[in-house]
Q: What sequence folds into this?
């Protein structure tokens, strides 16, 4: 009986194929509270329990996920401060259990009708970072001059997630 | 004994007090407080300021090797021993020679105000063919030559500009092959003491005196250390005269090319060289003119490739009283036991290194 | 009664220990200057880890281009245009034991190398920053001093 169970488990694991899906995260609001000064300024956003809801929806477990890589990072804003004074943006992720990871950068930052795209780091694997209970998005913005205002934008992140099915 | 009602309330109050002094564990979901970058122009030390010292390196200097494993190969060349007793043997052809180089430099103290390193090195030369008949002197030499040494380097800066540098090694050199180390082999000591100036991040100069065997025999010579990187950081010069000098071309932080020379030499004690003869010492010195390429393979693992001409300066033999060496001055009357002419082979060397941060 | 007193003492000890740990960990926060005086580094807390970024450079412009210095020696070509001002050269430090932060790295923009690193606080205004490769023996210690803004 034990052999049958063992064989079944082996067959189940061995027959799992790796699939990839696009995963559009919920938009994230990023705020740099003023006063903002010339040079780099940092905003951080805490994200809780990122993977579990996706796994539940796709009927798999967190252990089935093989990789999570960034596909596109889009920043949208109507904030005139960001549109006129921000010269570069860099997105990182950090968690307690993993090293800080660069996800994308835009330097120089180019806006087109209130939208800008960050160049993603193609081999950045978010799985070790997102695997824990909580991680943080860290967005660095370089401003050209001092200002008392607060800057806001929304980040839309499209990921590629690989998982065994 | 069960707590009374009053005691229970007391405990609850204490628990609540303990909770309030614990820091709140709320994740930060807003922007971090912003900083005034321009204000960092006008700062002062919170406590005592730190004294600044110059470092032992300049920008783009070829990296120091912490651990080295290398192999070298020498092409065909000839030995012609002359003035050997009353018999002058015919020229002997060496088809090729090869050698192993192993070295380690371990930082013992590594801080701004003092750097002390301990070093170990082993090099050998294996000749092919190694067996020579009817020629005991050459036979003893071509058994193979090895050099094993321990050393130390001390870099002591006094401030941002002035420093002292001490290097000292003690080596046992002879016709042996590791791991068989002969007993009673006389150690040879070399040392150099320099005082220098670091002008800026791209230039340093030092002057001093050395006791050295690079010429094949004991000598006391002045030394000049000069390391320089041009403002564009493409070219540089690394010199420790008269021992070596290289012009440096820096492609980037991970690739560089050196062209120049190094004078290498030692005195080797030949055991069982000639029967009924006092200790024979081989005085060997060669000028290696070369191109030397260095590249980072991965992180701090570097590859070096070197190719050039090995110009033999000295390959002569002395007799020693016991194992003690002597300083051959210009007025020294002791003749060489034998002298040699050696042709000049091409050589190449490949090495793998762990380099210093 | 004895049980209650004992429990009370335990609670007080636990609260005192917790109070003692948290401020020690954040003692690293602030602005520091390496011994060569070429840069000033601000240590901040991101998530639950400590990071240090360059906030001031003694020579902010590249002599070759006359533009703000960038991370031109980074082994990743895609990152070579990152400005050095604002660059995080201390990353991922965790408070491990008394006055010690470990598990982090330090980056040298001069050569693009990243080293393992241990930070030890000698006193409230002095840090021993030891960068090394492989084992701590193959490394170098630098002394950083705390800075405050002039009034």
A:
């Amino acid at each position: 009986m034990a052999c049958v169970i063992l064989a079944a488990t082996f067959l189940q694991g061995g027959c799992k194929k790796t699939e990839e899906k696009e995963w559009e995260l919920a938009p994230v609001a990023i705020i740099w509270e003023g006063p903002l000064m010339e040079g780099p300024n940092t905003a951080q956003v805490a994200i809780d329990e990122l993977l579990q809801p996706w796994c539940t929806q796709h009927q798999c477990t967190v252990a089935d996920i093989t990789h999570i890589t960034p596909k596109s990072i889009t920043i949208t804003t109507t904030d005139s401060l960001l549109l006129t004074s921000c010269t570069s943006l860099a997105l990182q992720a950090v968690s307690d259990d993993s090293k800080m990871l660069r996800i994308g950068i835009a330097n120089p930052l180019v806006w087109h009708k209130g939208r800008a795209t960050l160049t993603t780091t193609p081999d950045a694997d978010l799985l070790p970072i997102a695997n824990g209970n909580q991680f943080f998005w860290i967005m660095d913005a370089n401003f050209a001059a001092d200002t008392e205002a607060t800057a806001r934008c929304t980040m839309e992140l499209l990921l590629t997630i690989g998982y065994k099915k | 004994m069960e707590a009374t009602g009053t005691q229970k309330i007391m405990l609850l109050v204490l628990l609540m007090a303990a909770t309030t002094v614990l820091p709140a564990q709320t994740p930060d979901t807003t922007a971090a407080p912003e900083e005034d970058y321009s204000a960092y122009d006008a700062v002062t030390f919170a406590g005592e300021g730190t004294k600044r010292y110059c470092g032992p390196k300049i920008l783009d200097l070829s990296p120091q090797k912490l651990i080295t494993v290398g192999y070298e190969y020498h092409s065909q060349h000839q030995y012609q021993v002359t003035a050997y007793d009353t018999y002058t043997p015919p020229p002997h052809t060496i088809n090729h020679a090869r050698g192993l180089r192993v070295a380690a430099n371990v930082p013992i103290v590594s801080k701004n105000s003092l750097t002390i390193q301990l070093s170990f090195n082993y090099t050998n030369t294996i000749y092919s063919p190694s067996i020579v008949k009817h020629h005991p002197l050459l036979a003893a030499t071509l058994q193979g030559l090895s050099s094993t040494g321990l050393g130390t380097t001390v870099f002591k800066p006094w401030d941002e500009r002035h420093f002292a540098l001490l290097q000292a090694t003690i080596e046992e050199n002879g016709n042996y092959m590791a791991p068989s180390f002969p007993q009673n082999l006389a150690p040879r000591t070399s040392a150099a003491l320099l005082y220098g100036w670091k002008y800026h991040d791209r230039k340093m100069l030092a002057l001093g005196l050395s006791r050295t065997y690079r010429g094949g025999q004991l000598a006391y010579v002045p030394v000049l250390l000069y390391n320089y990187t041009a403002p564009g950081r493409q070219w540089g010069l690394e010199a420790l005269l008269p021992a070596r000098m290289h012009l440096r071309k820096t492609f980037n932080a991970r690739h560089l090319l050196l062209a120049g020379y190094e004078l290498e030499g030692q005195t080797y004690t030949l055991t069982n060289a000639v029967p009924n003869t006092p200790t024979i010492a081989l005085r060997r010195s060669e000028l290696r003119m070369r191109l030397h390429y260095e590249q980072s393979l991965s992180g701090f693992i570097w590859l070096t490739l070197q190719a050039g001409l090995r110009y033999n300066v000295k390959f002569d033999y002395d007799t020693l009283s016991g194992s003690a060496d002597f300083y051959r001055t210009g007025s020294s009357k002791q003749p060489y036991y034998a002298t040699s002419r050696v042709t000049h082979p091409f050589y190449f060397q490949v090495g793998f290194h762990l380099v210093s941060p | 009664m004895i049980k209650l007193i004992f429990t009370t003492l335990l609670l007080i000890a636990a609260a005192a220990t917790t109070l003692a740990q948290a401020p020690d960990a954040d003692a690293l926060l602030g602005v520091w200057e390496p011994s060569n005086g070429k840069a000033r580094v601000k240590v901040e807390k991101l998530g639950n880890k400590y990071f240090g970024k360059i906030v001031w450079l003694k020579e902010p412009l590249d002599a070759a281009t006359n533009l703000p210095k960038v991370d031109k020696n980074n082994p990743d070509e895609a990152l070579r245009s990152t400005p050095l001002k604002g660059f995080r050269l201390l990353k991922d430090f965790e408070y491990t034991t008394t006055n010690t932060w470990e598990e982090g790295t330090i980056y040298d923009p001069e050569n693009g190398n990243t080293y393992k690193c241990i930070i030890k606080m000698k006193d409230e205004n002095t840090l021993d920053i030891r960068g090394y490769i492989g084992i701590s023996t193959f490394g170098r210690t630098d002394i950083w001093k705390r800075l405050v803004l002039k009034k």
Chain A touches chain C through 23 residues (CB under 8 Å). The beta strands of chain A are 18-24, 28-32, 39-48, 65-76, 86-95, 98-106, 115-120, 134-143, 151-164.
